[in-house]
């Protein structure tokens, strides 16, 4: 079981709730994925501070844990305010913290991220920070009070898959006991399997599933890949070698030369 | 049979047309003072079922493919059959490939072919998709013309909340969108702009794909262009936000720099009524028929749903106990 802030989760797949063709398809997708946690963006959906209304009710009706996020926030102040609003709306201390630093790549502003994480952790939030694969930033986030890290493996929505496997390995090696959830950049199930094989604890998906031709089918495929990667990591993966090694012993065989 | 249609948005007007055509005595009651101010008034007016398939189920094609013919027959001269052009900037080429995979009935266009279709876009895009069977109309002119035509056909219009709605109708059809207060409906906020410039002309709706801010621009008469539309899960009906206006304007400017010099004639925001599957429904319950949930497909799907609603009413003309048929006659798109 994966434990995040004291909550045990059987599923290693988190799902975003944006960009689906319809709420009905989103509900099918959540069921097909077996996910127990969905993220929901507060900032865009409010459009001026009114309640998100029916859409949020539909999210609650999914019957899974809601992880509100601060998507679209570009400053510490925005992110902190949004997190406080999210606590009110969804009655949860969980917050997926995003502080965007670059409009094109949606790369996190790691300085603003650490500062917001500190403020929110002090206020009792359970912070899930969306960060880069930078080791030192990860350390600072843990110092700021985060107990879970959500590094990217490629820019949000890029579907590029793990770009810097060395950095991801390094994160895993340095923080063996911290839940590490790959957030952003996964495009296909093999990408999810690849990061799970590196020992990551879970993945978060949105675009790769929501924009698929059949979102529920894709979510099911991802769920299988995540399980496969997790099981492979636990089973111990054979390291690649430079040369061929026969799988049957050759000693004792006749030599014809 | 005397039928009351509540709501004079595109759904109400299309239903009234289908009923009047079947020689029923129709009254349309609209709480607003005129036909403007509703979600239909802010619509793009694209009759584009194949493009819409990108983010909707097969149903949108099955239900929407006859829309252009229906509007042409109802309002001769209002429908422009010039197709839809879909483009993306080179950095978003993967969006174009994705769009082509999700849709059908389109052809790939090279830079030269784009220039032939839309000379003002020459040199701006290297690749595009052309949906030649699609059409568009001007929603405002179409609605005004439909009110005029229906009045001539004998339909009574009651505008404004001050008017007492007469009683004694055999059937009531509720086409009031969000105002129907149906708990199964949610609002999907849409924001739009109308620009005016004579520096560029387009013959057909152009969709500019972008991973975050896809937009469409629909040419309207007198150098006007409708730019739309945001899709926000919210029940807030307030004015357009600065961010949305910026995104729409940025996208328009990215389509062609001439839009940078255009006048902003109008901005608007409204709620699209939507059910969980984002498809419209005709429902019959306790003698009342509801036609609702058009989401972003009012002009595209109103014809077929209006036909369904009219057939339902027509079929029940001799039926004295309409409430018994509630479950059987519920039709879903």
From TrEMBL, chain A:
<dbReference type="InterPro" id="IPR008867">
    <property type="entry name" value="ThiG"/>
</dbReference>
<protein>
    <recommendedName>
        <fullName>Thiazole synthase</fullName>
        <ecNumber>2.8.1.10</ecNumber>
    </recommendedName>
</protein>
<feature type="active site" description="Schiff-base intermediate with DXP">
    <location>
        <position position="96"/>
    </location>
</feature>
<keyword id="KW-0784">Thiamine biosynthesis</keyword>
<comment type="pathway">
    <text>Cofactor biosynthesis; thiamine diphosphate biosynthesis.</text>
</comment>
<keyword id="KW-0704">Schiff base</keyword>
<comment type="function">
    <text>Catalyzes the rearrangement of 1-deoxy-D-xylulose 5-phosphate (DXP) to produce the thiazole phosphate moiety of thiamine. Sulfur is provided by the thiocarboxylate moiety of the carrier protein ThiS. In vitro, sulfur can be provided by H(2)S.</text>
</comment>
<feature type="binding site">
    <location>
        <position position="157"/>
    </location>
    <ligand>
        <name>1-deoxy-D-xylulose 5-phosphate</name>
    </ligand>
</feature>
<feature type="binding site">
    <location>
        <begin position="184"/>
        <end position="185"/>
    </location>
    <ligand>
        <name>1-deoxy-D-xylulose 5-phosphate</name>
    </ligand>
</feature>
<comment type="subunit">
    <text>Homotetramer. Forms heterodimers with either ThiH or ThiS.</text>
</comment>
<keyword id="KW-0808">Transferase</keyword>
<keyword id="KW-0963">Cytoplasm</keyword>
<dbReference type="InterPro" id="IPR033983">
    <property type="entry name" value="Thiazole_synthase_ThiG"/>
</dbReference>
<comment type="similarity">
    <text>Belongs to the ThiG family.</text>
</comment>
<dbReference type="InterPro" id="IPR013785">
    <property type="entry name" value="Aldolase_TIM"/>
</dbReference>
<dbReference type="Pfam" id="PF05690">
    <property type="entry name" value="ThiG"/>
</dbReference>
<feature type="domain" description="Thiazole synthase ThiG">
    <location>
        <begin position="5"/>
        <end position="249"/>
    </location>
</feature>
<feature type="binding site">
    <location>
        <begin position="206"/>
        <end position="207"/>
    </location>
    <ligand>
        <name>1-deoxy-D-xylulose 5-phosphate</name>
    </ligand>
</feature>
TrEMBL record, chain B:
<dbReference type="Pfam" id="PF01266">
    <property type="entry name" value="DAO"/>
</dbReference>
<dbReference type="InterPro" id="IPR006076">
    <property type="entry name" value="FAD-dep_OxRdtase"/>
</dbReference>
<keyword id="KW-0560">Oxidoreductase</keyword>
<feature type="domain" description="FAD dependent oxidoreductase">
    <location>
        <begin position="2"/>
        <end position="312"/>
    </location>
</feature>
<dbReference type="InterPro" id="IPR036188">
    <property type="entry name" value="FAD/NAD-bd_sf"/>
</dbReference>
<dbReference type="GO" id="GO:0043799">
    <property type="term" value="F:glycine oxidase activity"/>
</dbReference>
<dbReference type="InterPro" id="IPR012727">
    <property type="entry name" value="Gly_oxidase_ThiO"/>
</dbReference>
<protein>
    <submittedName>
        <fullName>Glycine oxidase ThiO</fullName>
        <ecNumber>1.4.3.19</ecNumber>
    </submittedName>
</protein>
<keyword id="KW-0784">Thiamine biosynthesis</keyword>
<comment type="pathway">
    <text>Cofactor biosynthesis; thiamine diphosphate biosynthesis.</text>
</comment>
